[in-house]
Write a structure and sequence with these properties.
Helix 4 packs across helix 10, helix 5 packs antiparallel against helix 10 and helix 6 packs antiparallel against helix 7. The longest helix is centred in the N-terminal third of the chain and has 20 residues. The chain has 2 domains: 344 residues, Bira Bifunctional Protein, Domain 2 (BirA Bifunctional Protein, domain 2, 2-Layer Sandwich), CATH 3.30.930.10; 112 residues, 3-Layer(aba) Sandwich (Rossmann fold), CATH 3.40.50.800. The chain is of the alpha+beta class. It has 17 helices and 18 strands.
Length: 498
């Protein structure tokens, strides 16, 4: 007996963790949001630029010392020349390469903005994705504190343009030089202590997520996610003594006086002077502490920041779909990175920039009801009902030429009209066009108003039902197709018509 032929094995449709698909409503919401951000950025004089998703890994600065593989945290591969290439992990490092490469052709200072997806090869979790969108603005070639103040003002203006009221957000500002002074005071100055400094900075950066006792663990021996030894993942600490950890935490209190040890640090004094200057500039421009605030607890985690750093925090609380309280925290930030372009130029190049986490901010705006997540209107659907397909296609072409979104039903032309109407409903179509042989012979066609007819089944009163039913389907002359469709779309507030 011959062997039975094996059934072909189906491939299971699945996504890697940390990635997500996006539908039309989500994409439309992102577009509206990024259009608003773009308008604010351009009002400040920034112009668009795009860089590729991939760069040579050394341009991103992600090689570990004495190792020939890229640092964890980036997605990398080798090309046919055995050179390492990585997906960008932010939009700033690629900009530094672009500016250095086109230095002579660009106006200085160079002001640009760009939006796009970035990629992190990290363990995914709630609110932590491997692919997410950012929207950046940068000024390269200016060392003035006014450039930093301007970033903070633009951040505040962007939040309000997106519908976040004053008092519901704050732009918090600090200076890495102040933090460097703190590091020197606890013996973590110098290149040989760079790793521990970064661990301290990352610990401070979590001040808005963990209580002080947990931050002390991150500054000291380390922290278990489960709260007890052996429970959950372990995060290695900076190894500071209890006294040094207390010094770090005291320095984050804006109300506390600087110690003599701190005041002897040139970096600390210079950082404080720059913060004072930024404070004067934002005050002169009319931005109060309810919008922009000097805050010593702000730390941006990336090592390349060299001066002022800033973070936009949403301060209001709301509830998720299950009624649990949600506090959004940081939705964007940036700072001065005077050394990033210098890596390519071999000379000092001052730069400062600001980045909005679009994906995170969109999630916050959606929860706050500032973004319409309803399904957007679909196209007008022209049904196929026994006539020549070319005639129906001609109708679609007329509608499109008039700036109206329209499509021809491209399923089986033998499908019953009811099946085609179900398709139009699934497409969220506002109108459907019907022309059978009788209508064709009389030079007529029917327009089914799917918005007007949506609530018919819920109407109990017979007279009201008959009236609504009459409104939901009208017969018109073929020549009136475009004008009638436009009138109905305006009536229902469908805005994509010409």
């Amino acid at each position: 007996m011959a062997d039975k032929p094996k059934k072909p094995q189906k491939l299971r449709a699945r996504l890697p963790r940390g990635l997500g698909d996006r539908g039309p409503a989500d994409i439309a919401a992102t577009r509206r949001m990024t259009d608003t951000i773009r308008e604010v950025y351009e009002r400040y004089g920034f112009e668009p630029v795009e860089t590729p998703t991939m760069e040579f890994t050394d341009a991103l600065g992600k090689f570990l010392p004495d190792q020939d593989r890229p640092n964890e945290g980036v997605f990398s591969f080798q090309d046919d020349d055995e050179q390492w290439i990585s997906l960008r992990y932010d939009l700033t490092a690629p900009l530094a390469r672009y500016v250095a490469e086109h230095w002579d052709a660009l106006p200085k200072p160079y002001r640009s903005y760009r939006a796009g997806y970035v990629y992190r090869n990290e363990k995914p979790g709630p609110g932590r994705f491997r692919q997410f969108m950012q929207f950046d603005a940068d000024t390269v070639g200016s060392g003035s504190p006014a450039a930093d103040a301007e970033m903070c003002m633009m951040a505040a203006d962007t939040m309000e343009a997106l519908g976040i009221p004053r008092g519901s957000y704050v732009v918090r500002v600090n200076n890495r030089k102040v933090l460097d002074g703190v590091m020197e005071s606890i013996g973590l100055g110098g290149d040989d202590q760079a790793g521990r400094r970064l661990t301290v900075l990352r610990a401070i950066d979590k001040m808005d997520k963990f209580p002080v006792d947990e931050i002390k663990k991150l500054l000291g021996p380390g922290r278990w996610d489960g709260g007890e030894e052996g429970k959950g993942d372990f995060t290695k600490g900076a190894g500071l003594s209890l006294e040094d950890a207390e010094t770090v935490l005291r320095s984050l209190d804006a109300a506390s006086e600087a110690t003599d040890k701190l005041n002897s640090s040139e970096a600390y004094k210079q950082g404080r002077a720059e913060l004072d200057e930024i404070g004067k500039l934002i005050t002169a421009a009319g931005y109060g502490e309810d919008r922009i605030k000097i805050d010593p607890s702000v730390v941006r985690g990336l090592e390349y920041y060299t001066g002022p750093v800033y973070e936009v925090e949403l301060t209001l609380e709301t509830k998720d779909e299950k009624g649990r309280p949600v506090r959004f925290g940081s939705v964007g930030g940036g700072g001065r990175y005077d050394g990033l372009v210098s890596r390519f130029r071999g000379e000092p190049v001052p730069a400062t920039g600001f980045s909005i986490g679009v994906s995170r901010l969109q999630a916050a705006l959606t929860l706050l009801g500032k973004i319409d997540t309803q399904q957007q209107p679909g196209p007008v659907v022209v049904t196929v009902f026994g006539g020549e397909i070319a005639d129906y296609q001609a109708m679609v072409a007329k509608l499109r030429s008039a700036g109206i979104r329209a499509e021809l039903y491209l399923g089986n032309p033998k499908h019953a009209l009811g099946q085609q109407m179900k398709y139009a409903d699934k497409r969220n179509s506002p109108l459907a066009i019907i022309q059978g042989s009788d209508e064709k012979a009389g030079g007529k066609l029917l327009i089914k108003d799917l918005i007007a007819g949506a609530g018919l089944t819920e109407i109990k009163d017979r007279e009201e039902y008959l009236k609504k039913q009459a409104d939901a389907q009208i017969e018109i002359a073929e020549s009136d197709l475009v004008s009638t469709v436009k009138t109905l779309l305006v009536k229902h507030g469908v805005s994509w018509s010409a």
